[in-house]
What we know:
The chain has one helix at 2-50; strands spanning 54-58, 63-67, 70-73, 86-90. By secondary structure, it is an alpha+beta fold. It has one domain. A 4-stranded antiparallel β-sheet has the order 3-2-1-4, covered by helices on one side. The mean pLDDT is 80.
Amino acid sequence: MRQSSFCVALCLALAMAGMTVAHAADTAGAAAVPETQQTENASLQAFIKANPDCLEFTDQCSHCAVVNGVAECSTAEIACIKQENQCTRRAGK
């Protein structure tokens, strides 16, 4: 009986330790996402400003259209190698 109580206590301790580690990993990842998104938005705005006649562009991962001065982009493809933005359609052409 004493051995089974020890096993139960050990299992509970390991489970609680695992939940703590999982929660810590979730918290760290949540803070990183907005920072990455802000950097990406800044680079899109810089590209639009540098190429005012560009209506559509791509980075080989997602395709974007400029609507009212704001980039509306598709979801990035799964296995892609992101490159510099390249204009694929310009105004008046």
